[in-house]
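Hello K.,

You asked for the raw outputs rather than the summary table, so here they are, unedited. I folded two proteins back to back in the same session to keep the settings identical. This is the first:
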Amino acid sequence: MTIRGIALASLCLTLGACATTTSKPPPQAHIEIQEQVGFTITEPVTVSDSVRTDYETALVLLRQGQDAQGIALLESVIENAPGVSGPRIDLGIAQHRLGDLESAERHLLSALELNPDHPVVHNELGIIYRKTGRFAESRRSYEAALSVYPGYHHARRNLGVLCDLYLADLKCALASYEAYMQTVPSDDQASMWIADLRARVGQQE
């Protein structure tokens, strides 16, 4: 029996439900790249029915804006299923949204220990690192996300912004925005950024 839940990070998690938990370490999440629509992440784990229900309820609460209740329930899920990365990612994103960057980073790093190649985690950490002035770490995080899924347009745009406004790396910014526009051609703001960057790069040359 499996369920599929949509996490705040736009993940698809597959949780195997059973009566008891297992002491074996869970397998890492599987990332399936779908070039036209993005990527799907499945995480096969064994959890109790109550943990599964709590996780689903927590996601509903967060989507409804009931952050305190959703976060408390996610913390309970993590306590009862410590080897599962999905709830840690959702908790990190929820804390980030509320402005608690320290807690968000801690939970995202713990998720990364379980799944080192998780593109959503790398992208979220990249944003936190940028907000806290760690620009080199931010760049590495975005590039790590893109190394897993080159079409990840959120990470591509974020890298462009970082290179443009914080690193003054115009060529990186231009290449990132151009790659982003191949996935999101309707972004008029990015189109203006590209035109501006092309002029600035041309002036430098």
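The second followed immediately with the same parameters:
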Amino acid sequence: MADFPDIIPVFPLPNFVLFPGVQVPLHIFEPRYREMVADVAAGHRIIGMMMLKGEWERDYHAFPDLYEIGCAGRISDLTRLPDGRFNLVLDGLAEFRVVREVRDRAYRQAEIQWCPAPAEKLALDDAAMTALRDLLITYLGEPAREVWRSLVEQRGLRDADLINFICFHLDVTAIEKQTLLEACGARPGCLIDVLTFRLEERKLGPGGPPGSSGRVQ
């Protein structure tokens, strides 16, 4: 990560968690984030995506709290609209931890420490691939079998690419996705835990076990 900047703009969103290797389209309309995109477009084109924390609505136009870990992405496609808004595609790069915020622009920036998940920690042997496939089919039903075939056999996704794709697209809460992001090298096991918890929760019904919030914290 030596070639990556130590200070990057931060784009906080509610209920959104980016993962490395995932492409996402974004529509930028707020003036401060239009300024952000314009500033990075001619340079490193890297934006740190982070999730808003707690009761962020009360302080949204200032500096609401953020989770400590985010995922940066690089702009791969950018279109400036006539009214100054932007459409862009962001390619997920790597995880980072905020060291301190830098508040000298209209938009948020942070000094960060890059903390990418080690590739070997996200590697899956054949047994792990089979176990994950079977768990996804149990959780999502038979349509997951064809999705798995498309991802693994046709597109060739495996290891980190496969784990991160599933974590991003899986229909679980944003808090669970943040937990998966923060797990870094333990992400495959954390994904198994989330799916297993959801299946057990399903067996117990909507209320869950006594005293349970029904979410992974």
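The chain has six helices and six strands.

Happy to rerun anything if the numbers look odd on your end.

Regards,
P.
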